[in-house]
Design brief:
The structure is a single chain. This protein is globular. It starts with a strand and ends with a strand. The protein has 771 residues and is of the alpha/beta class. The strands form 8 sheets. Strands 11, 12, 13, 16, 17, 21 and 22 form a 7-stranded antiparallel β-sheet that branches. It has 3 domains: 4-154, 3-Layer(aba) Sandwich (Rossmann fold); 214-275 and 303-557, Up-down Bundle (NADPH-cytochrome p450 Reductase, Chain A, domain 3); 565-620 and 628-770, 3-Layer(aba) Sandwich (Rossmann fold). α9 (355-364) packs across α10 (396-403), α23 (704-714) packs across α24 (727-744) and α24 (727-744) crosses α25 (749-761). The structure holds flavin mononucleotide.
Length: 771
């Protein structure tokens, strides 16, 4: 009986999806049919007796499942009948992706693995866990190789695949490829090479005479470096990844008459195929007379990444601008989005690539920005990276500006494709090397240099790939997500968010001995759109300017307040820098609820008042004789405790909550709740670059006066602990909490870890961690 293969993936940012898609492409290339699905569409999989489920799932948030696998994951966790019955006695191969720097490394994959075992699924290949912090690519490659070998062996006789992971038809002078399962290992095999060596070689190549060019607006491509010496000794490359297959046909469409300027001013909206506020009812993207404006009168429109909402920028604020960073706040009009957002919600922004990168790249590729093309395919299932571009006419400028991810380091399959188009043998050889097992540490090091596609083409000067090959092997420009800082009570038709304008220092390998900077795609774009507000505390009103940005609500938001958070829950928040964003929204929400007192329109408010009344009545019944006045005055401390730990570098230079200090320190007399309540019971600010106090949040938590209180609060079942920030901060706080629980709660190290694990499982220890 032939094997029926389901490839199922859960992916937040595309890595797991890419692995799944590439595996599907490889198998299709060998005429092995598969069904490719995201895990949440598992019900559409093929349920046959001889079934192999190949599952690839990454980790997001704090050890959570990616959004497109949540349903599958929770059904499996609750041992839902359909899932269990359909997976029982079925074969599976599982790959988890994660980052060991996080507390819960590859948790969804580990949980899935153990449940599949317990319900009687049959593991046919050892489960692998790819680690971003170590050897992600190698783990993926070797697991994929094992999966393909297994499938090959399981095929009926006469149907075997001749070649699996190498491309036998490419032999270069001085390099011959081993067979896929060939065990020929070179003495210079990657495994004997270590990254430190790779790094040190590169550092010795760096120039010493450096000029800092922070203000240069130019995009200077960087020549990438790696150890060519090693390559000169290698006669044979092992496991060079397979040449990607071609599946697109391109027709020229040069009568689009869309100039770069037209495309630029229209921004992304006319290019997005589905309905949006700026598209005609006749949704043909070639139609230049986009006159009928779609009026959003109902709230039924599902705004998404492919159908974004045009949000008008109302104002911008420069919160900080110093030698370390520039932080901006933007307020958007979302009136017609009809989104009942809550504090802690997140939305996505679709930002285009910068012209500073797009235009030189087009020039390097010899493409006229205003010429058009139309991509078609008979193999639509292979086009999962950029399906949105199929069967539409775009100019080359629009393709690179709005759709293709040209900023990230190209994948190995992309480099492999580039090798095909090099006229110089050295260039070709180096690219093959980077795609081989010996070249793995060098590819890893290449990634650390954050090269764009232009940098790669600048390095391999003889490479002249056709546009169609670039399109076939590219990934889509991904949206960027931001937490809302405003509270819906303040104004439900606007949202505010804050961000640092990301700036990266490039290694000094450009030709001009200058240090060059690259800017984050989205934050750099927003900064440019806003005419560079750069004076701290300056506020710019944009209402009259009609600047729109494409946004969409994120549908899954778990970093939110629990029910009755204001009445009887202890809320502890910890965030550094812009990690304060969701907490600004939480605290402002509470402040406004307390201040306004009569919010009858607000649905949760009535519930909130009655619950509070019950609470007060309960307290009355348990009253030990205190008089009523005392009771009411002290209710704020009895009812719940809200506190925040906030970290910045300098109290004056980059403190993002300085404007809120006085407001958040208020104790508000709320007539409706019949009590006085503090907005915040504690506001603890640490400054890492000044002062004598603790430098970081995790240090402040360990001070006696905070630690004991934290320990008691953590043991109270009404406590919710939120952390938002970079992974180093989250790790530091986790370690401090463990220490606190051990010291003040008399727990052993294992008990303290388990205590925090349990808290996280109960969704009372919530972390929004950035990669
Ligand atoms: C915001 C964020 C949170 C993450 N949280 C975890 C985590 O809790 N545990 C883990 O092992 N890896 C974590 N990772 C690492 C990802 O799982 C890893 O980068 C993976 O390769 C991403 O795959 P994807 O692009 O398919 O989502 C996180 C990454 C990001 C960006």
């Amino acid at each position: 009986m032939s094997l029926s293969i389901n490839i199922l993936y859960g992916s937040q940012n595309g890595t797991a999806r890419n692995v799944a898609e590439n595996l599907e492409k490889d198998l299709l290339n060998d005429n092995i049919p598969t069904t490719l699905l995201q895990l949440d569409d598992y019900k559409d999989a093929k349920y046959l007796d001889n079934q192999l489920n190949v599952i690839i799932i990454s980790t997001t948030g704090d050890g959570e499942s990616p959004d497109n696998a949540i349903r599958f994951y929770s059904n499996l966790l609750s041992r839902e009948d359909f899932i269990c019955n359909s997976l029982k006695n079925k074969k599976y191969a599982l790959l988890g992706l994660g980052d060991s720097y996080f507390t819960y490394f590859c948790r969804p994959a580990k949980v899935i693995d153990s449940i599949l075992q317990s319900i009687g699924s049959i593991k046919v290949i050892e489960t692998a866990f790819g680690d971003d912090a170590k050897n992600l690519d190698e783990t993926i490659e070797s697991w994929v190789k094992d999966v393909k070998l297994y499938i090959k062996k399981s095929l009926p006789l006469g149907n075997e695949v001749s070649s699996i992971s190498t491309d036998g038809d490419n032999t270069m002078e001085g390099i011959e490829f081993t067979s896929s399962d060939g065990n020929i290992t070179d003495s210079n095999d990657s495994n004997s090479e270590n990254d430190t060596q790779v790094g040190s070689i590169i550092e010795t190549e760096m120039n010493i005479d450096i000029i800092d060019d922070a203000n240069s607006l130019e995009y200077k491509p960087i020549k990438l470096s790696f150890n060519k010496e090693l390559l000169s000794h290698i006669t044979q490359l092992n496991h060079v990844i397979k040449k990607p297959i071609s599946y697109l046909s391109l027709m020229s469409a040069n009568n689009l008459y869309r100039s770069v300027n037209y495309s630029r001013t229209q921004q992304i909206f006319p290019l997005i195929p589905k309905i949006n506020p700026y598209q005609t009812s006749n949704s043909n993207s070639n139609n230049m007379n986009n006159t009928t404006i779609y009026s959003s009168s109902s709230n039924t429109i599902q705004y998404s990444e492919n159908n974004p909402f045009a949000a008008k920028i109302l104002s911008a604020n420069c919160l900080a601008n110093n030698e370390w960073k520039k932080t901006l706040q933007i307020t958007l009009d979302i009136t017609n989005l009809h989104w009942n957002y809550e504090p802690g919600y997140v939305f996505g922004i679709i930002a285009p690539n910068s012209d500073k990168l797009v235009l030189p790249l087009l020039k390097r590729l010899g493409l006229n920005p205003e010429d058009g093309f139309r991509a078609t395919t008979t193999k639509e299932n292979l086009c999962s990276g950029l399906p949105v571009m199929l069967n539409k006419c775009y100019t080359y400028y629009e393709a690179f500006k709005y759709f293709i991810n040209i900023n990230a380091c190209p994948k190995k399959s992309f480099l492999r494709m580039l090798a095909e188009y090099c006229t110089n043998k050295e260039d070709k050889k180096q690219l093959y090397f980077l795609c081989s097992s010996q070249g793995a540490p060098y590819y890893r090091h290449l990634k650390l240099q954050h090269p764009s596609l232009l940098d790669v083409l600048y390095t391999f000067t003889s490479c002249q790939p056709p546009f169609v090959a670039i399109l076939e092997n590219s990934t889509r420009l991904a949206p960027r997500y931001y937490s809302i800082t405003s509270s819906p009570l303040q104004n439900p038709t606007t949202i505010s968010f804050i961000f640092n304008v990301d700036r990266y220092k490039m290694p000094n390998t450009s030709d001009d001995n200058k240090i060059h900077y690259r800017y984050g795609i989205c934050t750099g774009w927003l900064d440019e759109l806003l005419e560079k507000p750069s004076i701290p505390d300056c506020f710019i009103n944009y209402r009259s300017k009609s600047i729109y940005i494409p946004i969409f609500p994120k549908t899954v938001n778990s970093f939110v307040l629990p029910q009755n958070a204001i009445i009887n829950k202890n809320i502890i928040m910890a965030g550094a820098g812009t990690g304060i964003a969701p907490f600004i929204s939480f605290i402002e929400y509470k402040r406004q609820l307390l201040e306004e007192g009569t919010l009858e329109d607000y649905p949760s408010f009535k519930e909130l008042t009655s619950i509070n009344q019950n609470y007060i009545n309960d307290n009355d019944n348990n009253n030990d004789g205190n008089n009523d006045d005392d009771k009411h005055n002290n209710n704020h401390s009895k009812i719940s405790s809200w506190c925040i730990f906030y970290g910045c570098r300098s109290f004056l230079k980059d403190n993002l909550i300085k404007d809120f200090n006085m407001l958040w320190k208020q104790i508000i007399e709320n007539k409706n709740l019949n009590c006085k309540k503090a907005v915040l019971d504690d506001l603890i600010i640490t400054t890492s670059r000044e002062g004598e106090g603790p430098r970081y949040i995790q240090d402040a938590m360990k001070l006696n006066e905070n630690a004991e209180k934290l320990c008691n609060l953590l043991r109270d079942k009404n406590t919710y602990f939120y952390v938002c920030g970079k992974k180093a901060l989250c790790k530091g706080i986790q370690e401090s909490l463990e220490e606190i629980l051990q010291h003040y709660g008399n727990m052993s190290p294992e008990e303290s870890k388990k205590f925090l694990d349990d808290l996280s499982n109960e969704k009372r220890y919530l972390r929004d961690i950035w990669g």
